[in-house]
Amino acid sequence: MQTDLAAVASRLVDVMNLEDSRPTTLLEGDGVEEVLSSLSTVKIDPNPPGVISRAVICNPVGRTIDAPYVIHDEAGLILLHQSQDKPEYLSSITRNLSKKGGSVRDASLVIARYFHDVDESDHPDGILIHEIGIENNFRIRISSDEGGEESSDLSFLQFALEQGGITEYHLGGNFLPHEIGLSDFVKLDNGCYPGQEIHARLDSRNPVTKRLVRIRSEEPLEKGRLVTEYGKLKIFTPFVNLFAHAIADEGVVDGVMNHKGLDVEISTVHSAF
Question: 132 Cβ partners below 8 Å, 6+ apart?
Fold first, then answer.
C-alpha cells in the first residue's frame, strides 16, 4: 500500500463562487421544528436565528431521499435541499403545518445559494455554513441579495464529487444514510420517523459497516464493482475530473493502491455535505 498519489494531485480554483440551483423551502408557523422532526432521523430543536441544523429524510425502508441543511430564521426554517427536484415529502409537511396555521413556501427564487472558497472575503449580509468538503476549504453562503454575482466556470457535479458532496446519485432512496456519510445524523431516540424501525433493527442485529468513499484514479474506472485484496467497492457515480464515489466494504482502507496498473486513491467521506 502506497501513501501518496503525486501524479494526480489537483486543486479546484483559487477563488470560487459556484451557484447551487437546487430547491430551497421556507417553513413558516408554530411548531415547524416538531413537524420537521417527525420526518427526520435527527430531532430539530428550536434555535435562535442564524443557527444551522441538519435533517435527514428517509423513505419507509430507511433509505435516504434528502439531507437538507436547516437554517433557523426569524421567518421560520429554511431548508436547503440536497435533492435536485422539489421533494415529495413537503406535501406531508404542508398538511401538518396547515393544521396549525403554518405554511410551506418555495424560496428558491428569493434566496441565493453559493459555494465559496474560504479565501474569498466575507459577505456581511449572508449566512455561512463553514468547513464543508473533504479539504474543508469551502463554505455555503445564502442571502436574499443575489447581487448579480457571477458564477465560476465549474459544474456543481464536478465540485460535489471532488469534495464529498451529496448529489442526485446518492438520493432517490438508493442508500441508507450510514452508507453515504450521514451516520452522525441517525438518532434512534428521535421518535418514530419513516425508516426508524429499519434503522433500529440494523443497529441491534446487523450494524451497517459499509461507508462512502471518494475514488481518485489516474484514468476513469468502469462503473460497477471494484474488487481489491481488502474488499469490494461499488462505484455508483460517474467519474468527473477523475473522481467518483463508491460504497466500500469494512476491510477497504484509505490510501493508494494499484489496481490493474493504475494508482487509485481511496478517501472516506466522514460527513457528506
Answer: 115, 138, 139, 140, 163, 165, 273
Burial of 200: CB neighbours in 10 Å, binned 0-12, 13-18, 19+ = middle
Question: What is the predicted pLDDT for the residue at 22?
Answer: 95
Please check whether residue 124 lies inside any domain of the structure: no
For residue 224, is it within any domain? yes
Q: Which domain holds residue 178?
A: 6-12+169-268
64 found inside a domain: no
Candidates 212, 224, 227, 235; CA nearest to 257 is 227
Residue 209: CA count within 13 A, CB half-sphere: 9
How far is it, in rounded angstroms, from Cα 271 to Cα 148?
32
Burial of 59 (0-12, 13-18, 19+ CB in 10 A): middle
* The pTM of the whole model exceeds 0.90: no
| Count of C-beta atoms within a 10 Å radius of residue 236 | 18
pLDDT band, very low/low/confident/very high, at 3 (cuts 50, 70, 90): very low
Let me know if residue 178 belongs to a domain: yes
Nine-digit cell string for 245 = 464515489
- Supply 169's cell numbers: 446519485
What sign has the CA pseudo-torsion 12, 181, 193, 128? negative
CATH number at residue 179: 2.40.30
- How many domains does the structure of the chain reveal? 1
243: left (phi over 0), alpha (psi -120 to 50) or beta: beta
Dist CA 6 CA 185 (whole Å): 34
35 pLDDT higher than 50: yes
Which stretch of 91-95, 140-144, 221-225 has the lowest confidence by average pLDDT?
A: 221-225
